[in-house]
Amino acid sequence: MTIDIETLRGMKLFEGFEAPPMDFANAFEESYSRGQMIVRAHDPARYIYLVREGGVKEVQVTPEGKEVILSLHGPGDLFGELAPFHNGEAPASAVAVAASRVMCVPREDWNRIVEASPPLQRSLQEQLARRLQEAWRLVRMLSRYTTEARLKSALLLLAERWGQPHEEGIEIALDLTHRTLADLAGASREKVTRALGILQQKGLVKVVKRRMILPSLDRLLAE
Questions:
Q1: pTM of the predicted model, to two decimals?
Q2: For position 161, which CATH number holds?
Q3: Same domain, 22 and 130
């Protein structure tokens, strides 16, 4: 299919582009339900993935069977680009954290498109810088001692990526289970459940049908 730049302009990667149409003749879109596997770690990495709607987490599983979230991707984000540094294999499993729509571009086509587009090359560099910054934030978050502190950091990160205005504050537009929050915060589900209860008692978080509402990001950051 041929997708012109107007179709992609809403994605972060293509913001501000003034360019002719790009040929994605071999690209296709797939829809995934919440929890569905998109790509499995160590599988041959044949595609570059662009999140059109929803959200995706990249995870690894420890020898003890614990899932560790390495990164989160929202609408407009790219993933799968690190495979060349891992012998052409997917470095982590990618799983939908919400009902999602993902554009899959054959790697060879993507490389050709990038080579022909200096603006896209610059945008990719900016996204890589953001990814590095986010990785550092995750490392800092996991170095914090208490589960409550880790959970607060996780909620702030989620609010930045999926936050939407709500009459009571900022709503994280994902149906979050305690298991997902625990994997992100690097803690047990039981500890996260207790920490979330404390944050609710303090009025820092409201939970409505698995949607998290943060009345004040400033208060959550300060307290």
A1: 0.75
A2: 1.10.10.10
A3: yes
Name the H helices within the chain: 5-8, 107-115, 118-142, 147-162, 178-185, 189-201, 217-222
- Which two structure tokens, joined as six digits, stand for 68? 């560790």
Burial letters 16-54, b for 16+ CB under 10 A, else e: ebeeeebebeebeeeebebeeebbebeeebebbbbbbeb
> How many CA within 13 A on the CB side of residue 55?
18
Dist CA 10 CA 28 (whole Å): 18
Interaxial angle between packed helices 147-162 and 118-142, expressed in degrees from 0 to 180 and rounded to the nearest 10: 160
Q: Are 99 and 32 in contact (CB under 8 A)?
A: yes
Choose the final residue of a domain: 140, 174, 195: 140
The C-alpha atoms of residue 182 and residue 68 are separated, in whole angstroms, by 9
What is residue 104's predicted lDDT score, i.e. its pLDDT?
92
Query: pLDDT tens, 35-79?
Result: 999 999 889 889 999 998 888 988 888 777 777 788 888 888 889
Q: Are residues 54 and 112 in the same domain?
A: yes
Task: State the CB neighbour count (10 A cutoff) for residue 176.
Answer: 20
CA distance linking residue 124 with residue 114, whole number of Å: 9
Say which residues have a Cβ less than 8 Å from residue 143's Cβ, sequence separation at least 6: none
Bridge-based pairing of strands 56-61 and 67-73 is antiparallel
CA-based torsion, 167, 151, 177, 129: positive or negative: positive
Query: In terms of residue numbers, what domain contains 202?
Result: 146-222
In contact, 161 and 72? CB cutoff 8 Å: yes
- The CA distance from 157 to 16, in Å, is 25
